[in-house]
Design goal:
This protein is an alpha/beta fold. Helices cover about 40% and strands about 15% of the residues. The chain has 13 helices and twelve strands. It has helices at about 5-30, 35-50, 60-70, 85-95, 115-120, 140-150, 200-210, 235-245, 245-265, 290-300, 325, 330-340, 350-360; strands at about 50-55, 75-80, 100, 125-130, 155, 165, 170, 175-180, 195-200, 270, 285-290, 340. α4 links the parallel β2 (about 75-80) and β3. The longest helix has 22 residues, at about 5-30. The chain binds pyridoxal-5'-phosphate. Pyridoxal-5'-phosphate binds near residues 58, 60 and 181.
Length: about 375
Protein backbone atom coordinates (compact mmCIF):
# COMPACT_ATOMS: atom_id res chain seq x y z
CA UNK A 1 0.00 0.00 0.00
CA UNK A 2 1.43 3.40 -0.94
CA UNK A 3 1.41 5.56 2.18
CA UNK A 4 0.41 9.20 2.36
CA UNK A 5 3.86 9.99 3.76
CA UNK A 6 6.73 7.74 4.78
CA UNK A 7 8.85 9.45 7.42
CA UNK A 8 11.28 6.53 7.70
CA UNK A 9 12.30 7.04 4.07
CA UNK A 10 12.97 10.72 4.65
CA UNK A 11 15.04 10.09 7.77
CA UNK A 12 17.01 7.41 5.94
CA UNK A 13 17.74 9.76 3.04
CA UNK A 14 19.16 12.39 5.41
CA UNK A 15 20.47 10.07 8.13
CA UNK A 16 24.18 10.89 7.84
CA UNK A 17 23.64 14.64 7.92
CA UNK A 18 21.15 14.34 10.77
CA UNK A 19 23.55 12.23 12.84
CA UNK A 20 26.34 14.71 12.17
CA UNK A 21 24.47 17.84 13.27
CA UNK A 22 22.95 16.11 16.28
CA UNK A 23 26.38 15.08 17.58
CA UNK A 24 27.74 18.53 16.83
CA UNK A 25 24.90 20.10 18.84
CA UNK A 26 25.31 17.67 21.73
CA UNK A 27 29.05 18.40 21.79
CA UNK A 28 28.28 22.11 22.09
CA UNK A 29 26.49 21.47 25.41
CA UNK A 30 23.87 24.12 24.49
CA UNK A 31 20.33 22.78 24.22
CA UNK A 32 18.08 25.83 24.44
CA UNK A 33 18.34 29.10 22.49
CA UNK A 34 21.95 28.64 21.45
CA UNK A 35 23.84 28.96 18.16
CA UNK A 36 21.66 26.52 16.18
CA UNK A 37 18.42 28.38 16.89
CA UNK A 38 20.08 31.74 16.23
CA UNK A 39 21.50 30.50 12.92
CA UNK A 40 18.24 28.88 11.84
CA UNK A 41 16.36 32.09 12.67
CA UNK A 42 18.65 34.20 10.52
CA UNK A 43 18.83 31.63 7.69
CA UNK A 44 15.05 31.22 7.48
CA UNK A 45 14.49 35.00 7.71
CA UNK A 46 16.97 35.37 4.86
CA UNK A 47 15.24 32.59 2.86
CA UNK A 48 11.96 34.46 3.17
CA UNK A 49 13.39 37.93 2.78
CA UNK A 50 11.92 38.98 6.14
CA UNK A 51 13.82 41.09 8.66
CA UNK A 52 13.19 38.71 11.56
CA UNK A 53 12.26 35.12 12.21
CA UNK A 54 11.59 34.06 15.78
CA UNK A 55 11.59 30.33 16.48
CA UNK A 56 8.94 28.91 18.84
CA UNK A 57 7.85 25.47 20.00
CA UNK A 58 5.19 24.67 17.36
CA UNK A 59 2.87 26.20 14.76
CA UNK A 60 -0.12 26.62 17.07
CA UNK A 61 2.03 28.58 19.54
CA UNK A 62 3.27 30.64 16.59
CA UNK A 63 -0.34 31.56 15.81
CA UNK A 64 -1.20 32.40 19.40
CA UNK A 65 1.96 34.37 20.09
CA UNK A 66 1.72 36.09 16.70
CA UNK A 67 -1.89 37.05 17.37
CA UNK A 68 -1.07 38.42 20.83
CA UNK A 69 1.92 40.34 19.49
CA UNK A 70 -0.32 41.86 16.79
CA UNK A 71 -2.66 43.13 19.52
CA UNK A 72 -5.40 40.52 19.54
CA UNK A 73 -7.04 40.27 22.94
CA UNK A 74 -10.17 38.93 24.60
CA UNK A 75 -13.25 39.72 22.46
CA UNK A 76 -11.18 40.97 19.49
CA UNK A 77 -12.81 39.89 16.25
CA UNK A 78 -10.63 37.80 13.98
CA UNK A 79 -11.58 36.33 10.62
CA UNK A 80 -10.41 32.83 9.75
CA UNK A 81 -11.37 30.04 7.36
CA UNK A 82 -13.22 26.97 8.64
CA UNK A 83 -11.57 24.41 6.35
CA UNK A 84 -8.00 24.52 7.67
CA UNK A 85 -8.01 22.05 10.55
CA UNK A 86 -9.08 24.33 13.45
CA UNK A 87 -5.50 25.41 14.30
CA UNK A 88 -6.20 29.15 14.16
CA UNK A 89 -9.30 28.59 16.23
CA UNK A 90 -7.27 26.74 18.88
CA UNK A 91 -5.07 29.82 19.23
CA UNK A 92 -8.07 32.18 19.23
CA UNK A 93 -9.73 30.13 21.99
CA UNK A 94 -6.66 30.56 24.22
CA UNK A 95 -6.97 34.32 23.83
CA UNK A 96 -10.76 34.20 24.24
CA UNK A 97 -11.15 36.26 21.09
CA UNK A 98 -14.09 35.88 18.69
CA UNK A 99 -13.80 34.06 15.38
CA UNK A 100 -15.60 35.27 12.26
CA UNK A 101 -15.63 32.55 9.62
CA UNK A 102 -14.92 33.22 5.94
CA UNK A 103 -15.86 30.98 3.04
CA UNK A 104 -13.31 30.10 0.34
CA UNK A 105 -12.86 29.91 -3.43
CA UNK A 106 -14.03 26.52 -4.77
CA UNK A 107 -11.00 26.05 -7.07
CA UNK A 108 -8.10 27.26 -4.95
CA UNK A 109 -9.79 26.22 -1.67
CA UNK A 110 -8.29 29.43 -0.27
CA UNK A 111 -9.86 32.59 1.05
CA UNK A 112 -10.10 35.44 -1.47
CA UNK A 113 -10.57 39.22 -1.25
CA UNK A 114 -14.33 39.01 -1.62
CA UNK A 115 -14.57 36.74 1.49
CA UNK A 116 -12.27 39.10 3.42
CA UNK A 117 -14.50 42.07 2.52
CA UNK A 118 -17.54 40.22 3.89
CA UNK A 119 -15.70 39.45 7.15
CA UNK A 120 -14.69 43.08 7.55
CA UNK A 121 -18.30 44.12 6.99
CA UNK A 122 -19.15 41.71 9.82
CA UNK A 123 -16.69 43.53 12.11
CA UNK A 124 -13.38 41.65 11.70
CA UNK A 125 -10.40 43.61 13.07
CA UNK A 126 -7.78 40.97 12.23
CA UNK A 127 -7.54 38.53 9.32
CA UNK A 128 -5.76 35.18 9.32
CA UNK A 129 -4.89 34.31 5.72
CA UNK A 130 -4.10 30.60 5.51
CA UNK A 131 -2.21 29.44 2.42
CA UNK A 132 -3.86 26.04 2.43
CA UNK A 133 -2.33 22.78 1.14
CA UNK A 134 0.74 24.64 -0.17
CA UNK A 135 -1.18 26.96 -2.53
CA UNK A 136 -0.37 30.64 -2.06
CA UNK A 137 -3.48 32.81 -1.83
CA UNK A 138 -3.66 34.31 -5.34
CA UNK A 139 -4.78 37.75 -4.23
CA UNK A 140 -2.83 37.99 -0.95
CA UNK A 141 -1.28 41.27 -2.13
CA UNK A 142 -4.73 42.79 -2.75
CA UNK A 143 -6.04 41.42 0.56
CA UNK A 144 -3.16 43.00 2.50
CA UNK A 145 -3.56 46.32 0.66
CA UNK A 146 -7.32 46.37 1.26
CA UNK A 147 -6.83 45.58 4.96
CA UNK A 148 -3.97 47.96 5.63
CA UNK A 149 -5.99 50.84 4.13
CA UNK A 150 -8.54 50.10 6.86
CA UNK A 151 -6.15 49.52 9.75
CA UNK A 152 -6.82 45.78 9.76
CA UNK A 153 -3.94 43.47 10.57
CA UNK A 154 -3.25 40.47 8.31
CA UNK A 155 -1.55 37.42 9.85
CA UNK A 156 -0.47 34.82 7.31
CA UNK A 157 -0.61 31.15 8.26
CA UNK A 158 2.15 29.56 6.17
CA UNK A 159 2.26 26.23 8.02
CA UNK A 160 1.56 24.39 4.76
CA UNK A 161 3.30 26.67 2.28
CA UNK A 162 7.03 27.02 3.05
CA UNK A 163 8.61 28.45 -0.10
CA UNK A 164 5.42 29.19 -2.08
CA UNK A 165 5.56 32.54 -3.87
CA UNK A 166 3.40 35.07 -5.61
CA UNK A 167 5.69 36.48 -8.28
CA UNK A 168 9.07 36.90 -6.58
CA UNK A 169 7.61 37.36 -3.12
CA UNK A 170 7.41 34.38 -0.74
CA UNK A 171 4.30 33.85 1.32
CA UNK A 172 5.01 34.99 4.84
CA UNK A 173 6.20 38.42 3.73
CA UNK A 174 2.87 40.00 2.78
CA UNK A 175 1.10 40.45 6.12
CA UNK A 176 2.32 42.17 9.30
CA UNK A 177 3.54 38.80 10.49
CA UNK A 178 3.36 35.19 9.43
CA UNK A 179 3.30 31.88 11.27
CA UNK A 180 5.01 28.63 10.36
CA UNK A 181 4.82 25.07 11.66
CA UNK A 182 7.74 22.69 11.25
CA UNK A 183 5.75 19.60 12.22
CA UNK A 184 7.69 16.62 10.79
CA UNK A 185 5.56 16.06 7.67
CA UNK A 186 5.58 19.71 6.60
CA UNK A 187 7.56 20.74 3.49
CA UNK A 188 10.12 22.03 5.97
CA UNK A 189 9.66 19.71 8.94
CA UNK A 190 11.71 19.05 12.08
CA UNK A 191 12.06 15.70 13.85
CA UNK A 192 9.55 16.77 16.47
CA UNK A 193 7.46 19.83 17.14
CA UNK A 194 8.73 23.25 16.08
CA UNK A 195 7.38 26.51 14.69
CA UNK A 196 8.13 30.18 14.26
CA UNK A 197 7.03 33.66 13.28
CA UNK A 198 8.38 35.96 10.56
CA UNK A 199 8.00 39.72 10.59
CA UNK A 200 9.79 42.77 9.32
CA UNK A 201 8.53 44.98 12.15
CA UNK A 202 11.06 45.82 14.90
CA UNK A 203 8.27 46.28 17.42
CA UNK A 204 6.50 43.00 16.60
CA UNK A 205 9.80 41.08 16.70
CA UNK A 206 10.52 42.46 20.18
CA UNK A 207 7.06 41.50 21.42
CA UNK A 208 7.24 38.01 19.91
CA UNK A 209 10.68 37.44 21.45
CA UNK A 210 9.37 38.52 24.81
CA UNK A 211 6.12 36.49 24.58
CA UNK A 212 8.00 33.27 23.83
CA UNK A 213 10.22 33.80 26.89
CA UNK A 214 7.85 34.37 29.82
CA UNK A 215 7.06 37.96 28.78
CA UNK A 216 10.57 39.03 29.75
CA UNK A 217 12.35 42.17 28.76
CA UNK A 218 15.80 41.07 29.83
CA UNK A 219 16.21 38.29 32.36
CA UNK A 220 13.48 37.86 35.01
CA UNK A 221 11.90 41.23 34.23
CA UNK A 222 8.34 40.55 33.08
CA UNK A 223 6.81 43.31 30.97
CA UNK A 224 4.15 41.39 28.98
CA UNK A 225 1.33 39.68 30.87
CA UNK A 226 0.69 36.76 28.50
CA UNK A 227 4.27 35.64 28.08
CA UNK A 228 4.97 31.91 28.28
CA UNK A 229 7.64 29.39 27.51
CA UNK A 230 7.57 28.44 23.83
CA UNK A 231 11.06 27.85 22.50
CA UNK A 232 12.40 25.74 19.67
CA UNK A 233 15.18 23.51 20.97
CA UNK A 234 18.68 23.39 19.55
CA UNK A 235 18.41 19.86 18.16
CA UNK A 236 15.34 20.71 16.09
CA UNK A 237 16.98 23.90 14.81
CA UNK A 238 20.11 21.96 13.81
CA UNK A 239 18.02 19.46 11.83
CA UNK A 240 15.90 22.20 10.24
CA UNK A 241 19.09 23.90 9.00
CA UNK A 242 19.94 20.69 7.12
CA UNK A 243 16.47 20.43 5.55
CA UNK A 244 16.28 24.14 4.72
CA UNK A 245 19.22 23.78 2.33
CA UNK A 246 17.11 21.40 0.21
CA UNK A 247 13.71 23.03 0.60
CA UNK A 248 13.55 24.50 -2.93
CA UNK A 249 14.65 21.25 -4.49
CA UNK A 250 12.12 19.23 -2.51
CA UNK A 251 9.35 21.70 -3.34
CA UNK A 252 10.27 21.30 -7.00
CA UNK A 253 9.91 17.51 -6.73
CA UNK A 254 6.50 17.87 -5.10
CA UNK A 255 5.38 20.34 -7.78
CA UNK A 256 6.50 18.02 -10.58
CA UNK A 257 4.55 15.11 -9.10
CA UNK A 258 1.48 17.33 -8.73
CA UNK A 259 1.79 18.41 -12.39
CA UNK A 260 1.91 14.75 -13.43
CA UNK A 261 -1.26 14.00 -11.44
CA UNK A 262 -3.05 16.94 -13.09
CA UNK A 263 -1.97 15.72 -16.54
CA UNK A 264 -3.10 12.19 -15.68
CA UNK A 265 -6.61 13.42 -14.84
CA UNK A 266 -7.77 12.90 -18.41
CA UNK A 267 -11.41 12.23 -17.57
CA UNK A 268 -11.56 15.45 -15.50
CA UNK A 269 -13.73 13.66 -12.99
CA UNK A 270 -11.49 14.62 -10.09
CA UNK A 271 -11.30 18.32 -9.29
CA UNK A 272 -7.67 19.39 -8.82
CA UNK A 273 -6.38 22.84 -7.87
CA UNK A 274 -4.78 24.54 -10.86
CA UNK A 275 -1.44 26.26 -10.24
CA UNK A 276 1.06 28.16 -12.32
CA UNK A 277 4.43 27.26 -10.74
CA UNK A 278 5.97 28.95 -7.72
CA UNK A 279 2.51 29.65 -6.27
CA UNK A 280 2.21 26.00 -5.18
CA UNK A 281 4.50 23.78 -3.13
CA UNK A 282 2.19 20.74 -3.10
CA UNK A 283 2.15 20.20 0.64
CA UNK A 284 -1.07 18.19 0.41
CA UNK A 285 -2.52 17.09 -2.91
CA UNK A 286 -6.21 17.40 -2.18
CA UNK A 287 -8.77 16.43 -4.82
CA UNK A 288 -12.54 16.66 -4.89
CA UNK A 289 -14.94 14.10 -6.32
CA UNK A 290 -18.72 14.03 -6.71
CA UNK A 291 -18.73 10.65 -4.97
CA UNK A 292 -15.67 10.65 -2.69
CA UNK A 293 -16.43 7.22 -1.18
CA UNK A 294 -16.37 5.64 -4.60
CA UNK A 295 -13.15 7.47 -5.49
CA UNK A 296 -11.42 6.56 -2.21
CA UNK A 297 -12.37 2.89 -2.73
CA UNK A 298 -11.01 3.06 -6.29
CA UNK A 299 -7.61 4.24 -5.00
CA UNK A 300 -7.61 1.79 -2.10
CA UNK A 301 -8.32 -1.13 -4.45
CA UNK A 302 -5.32 -0.05 -6.51
CA UNK A 303 -3.03 -0.01 -3.44
CA UNK A 304 -3.06 3.74 -2.75
CA UNK A 305 -3.78 5.23 0.68
CA UNK A 306 -5.77 8.42 0.93
CA UNK A 307 -6.32 10.81 3.84
CA UNK A 308 -8.82 13.51 4.68
CA UNK A 309 -7.77 17.15 5.20
CA UNK A 310 -10.12 18.01 6.80
CA UNK A 311 -13.39 16.12 7.28
CA UNK A 312 -14.83 18.47 9.91
CA UNK A 313 -15.15 22.23 9.52
CA UNK A 314 -14.27 24.36 12.55
CA UNK A 315 -17.94 25.31 12.70
CA UNK A 316 -18.95 21.65 12.97
CA UNK A 317 -16.70 20.80 15.91
CA UNK A 318 -18.57 19.17 18.75
CA UNK A 319 -17.68 21.63 21.50
CA UNK A 320 -19.25 24.58 19.67
CA UNK A 321 -22.75 25.87 20.25
CA UNK A 322 -24.91 28.81 19.21
CA UNK A 323 -24.75 31.02 16.15
CA UNK A 324 -21.35 29.81 14.95
CA UNK A 325 -22.72 26.35 14.24
CA UNK A 326 -25.32 27.81 11.89
CA UNK A 327 -22.86 29.93 9.91
CA UNK A 328 -23.37 29.10 6.25
CA UNK A 329 -20.15 28.30 4.43
CA UNK A 330 -21.43 26.45 1.37
CA UNK A 331 -18.13 26.14 -0.50
CA UNK A 332 -16.10 25.05 2.55
CA UNK A 333 -18.82 22.57 3.46
CA UNK A 334 -18.96 21.03 -0.02
CA UNK A 335 -15.16 20.74 -0.18
CA UNK A 336 -14.84 19.18 3.25
CA UNK A 337 -17.41 16.49 2.44
CA UNK A 338 -16.13 15.70 -1.09
CA UNK A 339 -12.35 15.96 -0.81
CA UNK A 340 -9.56 13.53 -0.05
CA UNK A 341 -5.77 13.62 -0.19
CA UNK A 342 -3.48 11.60 -2.46
CA UNK A 343 0.19 10.85 -1.65
CA UNK A 344 2.41 13.57 -3.19
CA UNK A 345 5.86 14.01 -1.70
CA UNK A 346 9.57 13.50 -2.46
CA UNK A 347 9.63 10.11 -0.70
CA UNK A 348 7.54 8.43 -3.42
CA UNK A 349 9.41 6.19 -5.85
CA UNK A 350 8.97 6.54 -9.63
CA UNK A 351 7.00 3.26 -9.67
CA UNK A 352 4.64 4.57 -7.01
CA UNK A 353 4.10 7.85 -8.86
CA UNK A 354 3.27 5.93 -12.05
CA UNK A 355 0.87 3.71 -10.07
CA UNK A 356 -0.93 6.82 -8.77
CA UNK A 357 -0.99 8.43 -12.24
CA UNK A 358 -2.62 5.29 -13.65
CA UNK A 359 -5.17 5.20 -10.86
CA UNK A 360 -6.09 8.84 -11.53
CA UNK A 361 -6.38 8.19 -15.28
CA UNK A 362 -8.62 5.17 -14.78
CA UNK A 363 -11.11 6.87 -12.46
CA UNK A 364 -14.55 7.57 -13.94
CA UNK A 365 -17.67 9.02 -12.38
CA UNK A 366 -20.82 7.06 -13.14
C1 LIG B 1 -2.51 25.44 8.43
C2 LIG B 1 -1.90 25.04 9.74
N1 LIG B 1 -1.80 25.96 10.72
C3 LIG B 1 -1.28 25.66 11.92
C4 LIG B 1 -0.81 24.41 12.21
C5 LIG B 1 -0.33 24.10 13.58
O1 LIG B 1 1.00 23.66 13.63
P1 LIG B 1 1.52 22.69 14.78
O2 LIG B 1 0.98 21.33 14.52
O3 LIG B 1 3.01 22.76 14.63
O4 LIG B 1 1.04 23.25 16.07
C6 LIG B 1 -0.86 23.42 11.22
C7 LIG B 1 -0.33 22.09 11.52
O5 LIG B 1 -0.58 21.05 11.22
C8 LIG B 1 -1.43 23.73 9.95
O6 LIG B 1 -1.51 22.82 8.98
Amino acid sequence: MIEIFNMTRKILRYRKQIDYVISETLDSGNLILGQQVMKFESEFACYLGAKYFVAVANGTDALEIGMRAAGLKRDSKVAIVANAGNYSRTAINQIEATAIYMDVNPWTRNVQLENVKTAIAEGAEFIVATHLYGKAIDDIREIVEYCSNRGIVVIEDCAQAHGARIGDKPVGTFGELSCFSFYPTKNLGALGDAGGIATSSDLLALRINSLRTYGWEGKYNVTLKYGRNSRMDELQAAVLRVFLKNLNEENMKRREIAKRYINANVNKTLQMTPFSFHDYVAHLFVVTAKDPHRAITHFKDLGISTASHYPTLDTEQEYLEGAEVDKELPVSKYLSKHSFTLPCNPELTEEEIVQIERAIASYHEI
